[in-house]
Amino acid sequence: MSLAPQTEVRGRQVELFAALVVALTVVRLAGLHFSVVDLFFDESQYWAWAQAPDFGYFSKPPLLAWIIGASQAICGASEACIRAPSPLLHGATAFLIYAIAQRLFSARAAFWSGLIYLLAPGIVFSTRIISTDVPLLFCWALALLAFVELRSKPRWTWAVVLGVAIGFGMLAKYAMIYFVACAALAALMDEDSRRLWRTPQLWSALAIAIVVLSPNLMWNAANGFVTFKHTGDNARGHGLVFSLPQVAEFLASQFVVMGFITFGVFLALLVRPRQYFRDANLRMLMAFALPPVAIIAAVAFLTHANANWAAPSAIAMTILATAVLVMEDRRGWLMASVVIGLVVQAVLLTGDHIADRVTIPGIRNGDVYARTMGWHRLGDDVAVTAKAHGAHGIAADTRDLVSSLIYYTRDSGLPVFAWPPSIVPSHEFDISRPLKATSPAPILFVTECPLPARLEAQFGSVTSLGPVTMVRGPTSRRSFSLFLLDQPKGVLGPLAGCG
């Protein structure tokens, strides 16, 4: 059974798909409202960046900070408002996937592709948080739609869309550069894609992308290319390890990120392509699905890799796998993908609402929400203590603490600083919020190290205010020591002791 491109979309199917996407997005927004999960410190960091809009930041390009700033202007600074762009953008991405699949195959393939993407376990998880992958996937899907349209008939309108999508995708996350590699591979696998590389529209699109990215390039040039260096350091990790188990672990994680059935079909096509790759559209989609997975698998072998690093593959992979399942009329597998996603969605919606009570006995770190719980209460306790002792500011010595205290003490009016690092900064706040001898004193210092002697070398007055406990779940706790610091002895430097 062959799937030919269709130009007419069945009205009922479009209406049903739109209704499902809107309903699911509304449920997800409601879930954010009823969630008790605190911001993870990465999310707090992105919010802090949004308070000082710029063309770049230490570890990431600026688009996510801009998006959070816009959401805050409309909705406010609550956790739900900060995360609200995530389900909205994923919903929009699903519509783009529908458009791509309908253009290449049929309305039926489009319906299932958009729905299966929206209910992939990794996407379900992503809709609950705000991260750089969210705008990246939207930009990737928009760029792929433009590429598909240009591949069919080069038009300047779609060339502009492609250039803008790639440029803003790079402003979301530098992994967007994989798109160019995918387009190059498509030229090797597909005559229509190869022909596109010979048109002025494609090269003009790449030029537009560079123009869109140029403010960030100039920001990096003015700041020692700090984001590029950090990205490279993050990929290198702790050096070369040459680990096949890490490759296996990364590939296993893709069953969760992409969807169990979607990634399984993708692997099956790689092992036994059979007659499917006689279809030029399927070959083109494979070219846009394979490179991110292959590149990150190689990175996992050499150093390490996170499960989400190959996330851009999800767009083409979902359409590719779904098209094959539709070709074979595997309705059971299509429904199974949706049912699995709905189950994951229900579990996470419920878990987020009772996160402060969730624990799974008998497993290590049974408080499954421990990493994202307790920051709100800790911020409140620190702010109250700081004001009670007349502190004029708050400082901490780790990125998670600084990020979270910036957000969760935002109503106190007290500035939050990062303790001076070594010569090489390790995060944005080492640059934008360093604690200095000239910072307003006294300072309330929050640290996991209880030793006052290391502070007395740099401050004439060091007063221990005792510990504060961060409750992270029914069985999880994290203790911090509080010190009131005054009378700095000179230029502040890195702290010794406590590792």
What does this molecule look like?
It is found in: Cell membrane. The chain crosses the membrane at residues 16-36, 111-127, 156-189, 201-219, 250-270, 282-303, 309-326, 333-351. The chain is α/β, with parallel strands linked by helices and 499 residues long. It has helices spanning 11-34, 41-50, 63-75, 79-83, 85-104, 107-118, 121-126, 133-152, 156-172, 178-189, 191-196, 200-222, 226-236, 244-258, 260-271, 280-302, 313-327, 331-353, 375-388, 399-408, 428-432, 453-456; strands at residues 393-396, 416-418, 443-447, 459-471, 477-488. A 5-stranded mixed sheet has the order 2-1-3-5-4, covered by helices on one side. The longest helix is centred in the N-terminal third of the chain and has 24 residues, at 11-34. It is globular. It starts with 10 loop residues before the first helix and ends in an 11-residue tail after the last strand. The model is unreliable at 1-9 (pLDDT under 50).
